[in-house]
Amino acid sequence: MNWILNVVPPKIRSFLKKETPENLWVKCPESGQLVHHRDLESNLFVVPGSEYHMRMNAVARLASMFDDGRWDEVSGSEVLLDPLKFRDEKRYVDKLRDARTKTGLQDAVKVGAGRMDGRPVTVAVQDFDFIGGSLGMAAGEAVVAGLEHAVANATPFILFAASGGARMQEGMFSLMQMPRTTVAVRRLKAARLPYLVVLTNPTTGGVTASYAMLGDVHIAEPGALIGFAGPRVIEQTVREKLPEGFQRSEYLQQHGMVDMVVHRRDMKATLSRLCGLLMNDVVAEAEDHPGLPLATAAE
């Protein structure tokens, strides 16, 4: 065995140990290209060359949307941790604890309020790394709290959706978040405030069947999988070969389900321009926001 393990005391050993990130290099799922994690992070988690959009965690997403990366968290009411005392291969409370340790989040949705190009906005982000971005009571409460904050402060509400669907460990309590969030969206629209939805990879299940498809404008990131059931399930059900690119952003834009597909580097400028148009603000010159021409936004 290594002499350090046998001779050096544990405290000194821990001091000598060099910490190395586990994900120092990230492999692009599309091209196989290896990218240093710092380069990937500085490029908004988009792989240079292939332009493949990797998943972006909630905190990084919020920081990229707000001016100077500064925002205040909007918290919802506390909910029951494990209403059904659910257990499969492990207890649900243990799974929640592991997800919180892994992501640093309390649940799958994080909501922030701040300024985007000087304009007050409220932004909610679903983090797929937290149990697949699944919709449970805490996630639903966070979305509702964000919508209520937008109404109370007269701001646009922007949602970044990423989910595998409802959280089965919470059963009917999870399913009830679909009508709850839908009612909250109706209240936002009754207040005549914009609701913009950004569909990221993947957005499926009960989230797609509720608040993710109720936006005034639906934007998708390139290559995102969007739908209710996945393509493999649909193929097995209908027993037919699906069209190439079925349920991907570009296919859905061509067939009218998505309004526009926007690269992540242009996302903030696009959302800012849309908020300005829908809030009847004075719009800045087009060259200041090259991500979205005026003609495109007006259409």
Give an account of the 3D structure.
This protein is of the alpha/beta class and 299 residues long. The protein has two domains: 40 residues, no CATH class; 244 residues, Alpha-Beta Complex (2-enoyl-CoA Hydratase, Chain A, domain 1). 36% of the residues lie in helices and 16% in strands. The strands form two sheets. It has a seven-stranded mixed sheet, sandwiched between helices. Strands 1-2 form a two-stranded antiparallel ribbon. β5, α6 and β6 form a beta-alpha-beta unit. The C terminus is likely disordered.
Topology of helices and strands:
Elements: H1 3-7, H2 10-16, E1 25-27, E2 34-36, H3 37-42, H4 58-65, E3 71-73, H5 92-103, E4 109-116, E5 119-126, H6 137-153, E6 157-163, H7 171-175, H8 177-190, E7 195-203, H9 205-208, E8 217-220, H10 231-238, H11 249-254, E9 260-261, H12 267-278, H13 294-298
Parallel strand pairs: 5-6, 6-7, 7-8, 8-9
Antiparallel strand pairs: 1-2, 3-4, 4-5
Characteristics of this structure?
299 residues, alpha/beta, 2-enoyl-CoA Hydratase, Chain A, domain 1, 2 domains, seven-stranded mixed beta sheet, two-stranded antiparallel ribbon, 13 helices, 9 strands, disordered C terminus
The residue-averaged pLDDT reads 89
Q: What is the straight-line distance between the termini? A: 69 Å
Q: Give the tally of structural domains.
A: 2
Specify the structural class: alpha/beta
Helix content: 25-40%
Q: Supply Rg.
A: 21 Å
| Lateral strand order in the biggest sheet | 3-4-5-6-7-8-9
By CATH, the architecture of the largest domain is named Alpha-Beta Complex
The helix count comes to 13
Largest sheet: 7 strands, mixed
pLDDT below 50 for ≥5 consecutive residues: which ranges?
15-20, 282-287, 292-299
Q: Spell out the CATH superfamily of the largest domain.
A: 2-enoyl-CoA Hydratase, Chain A, domain 1
- Secondary structure: number of strands: 9
The CATH topology of the largest domain is 2-enoyl-CoA Hydratase, Chain A, domain 1
How big a fraction of the residues is strand? 15-25%
* Name of the CATH class of the largest domain: Alpha Beta
The 3D shape can be described as globular
